[in-house]
């Protein structure tokens, strides 16, 4: 940041070496999550030599990009080569995500989903459950690369979560669902 940023016209006297509230604010802009047990290069990816902004990587799979649209777009474009292989498996198949809307609370479907996850893990299926705050319906997901196998699970999942496969999680919400949820 120090090397690549240019002085702002409204801060001509800014100095990187003199402690000040402005320096503190600039340095805060470069703070990212950091795990001292991991190599820095696996946590901060600099994808463009002319940009001081890194992409922060947490747990190897969460990428934190800046909120400034122009920076976000440039960094995402440079990140594309490392993201695309994650979206297509070695056989050239894409990743499929199936959504199920259920009226049941997460605690009611958890035992079934735990069993389903254990039974399908060897086939690369990830099972998720996502409560929807103050909504009457929750979302269950299946993610995997074998579309035919995922399709074979639809009826079973619908029956066991008393739900319906949907294309977006709010698809079965009604106007009354927007009212405050009471327990």
TrEMBL record:
Residues in FAD synthase middle domain copies: 102-167
Protein name: FAD synthase middle domain-containing protein
Gene3D superfamilies in the cross-refs: MoaB/Mog-like domain
Annotated region described as Disordered, given as residue ranges: 162-183
Coiled coil regions in record: none
Pfam families per record: FLAD1_M
Family matches, as PANTHER family: MOLYBDOPTERIN BINDING DOMAIN PROTEIN (AFU_ORTHOLOGUE AFUA_5G11210) (PTHR47675)
Segments of skewed composition (Acidic residues): 169-183
Entry-linked InterPro entries: FLAD1_M (IPR056596), MoaB/Mog-like_dom_sf (IPR036425)
């Amino acid at each position: 940041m120090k090397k690549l940023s240019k002085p702002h016209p409204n801060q001509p006297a800014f100095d990187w070496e003199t402690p000040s509230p402005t320096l503190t604010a600039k340095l805060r802009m470069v703070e990212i999550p950091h795990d001292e047990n991991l190599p820095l290069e696996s946590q901060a990816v600099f994808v463009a030599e002319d940009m001081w902004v890194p992409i922060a990587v947490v747990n190897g799979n969460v990428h934190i990009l800046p909120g400034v649209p122009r920076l976000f777009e440039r960094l995402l474009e440079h990140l594309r080569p490392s993201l695309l292989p994650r979206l297509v498996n070695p056989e050239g198949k894409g990743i499929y995500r199936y959504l199920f809307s259920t009226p049941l609370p997460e605690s009611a479907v958890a035992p079934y989903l735990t069993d389903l996850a254990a039974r399908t893990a060897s086939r690369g299926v990830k099972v998720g459950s996502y409560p929807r705050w103050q909504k009457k319906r929750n979302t269950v997901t299946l993610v995997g690369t074998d579309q035919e196998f995922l399709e074979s699970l639809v009826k079973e999942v619908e029956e066991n979560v008393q739900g319906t496969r949907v294309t977006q999680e709010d698809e079965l919400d009604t106007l009354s669902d927007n009212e405050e949820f009471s327990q």
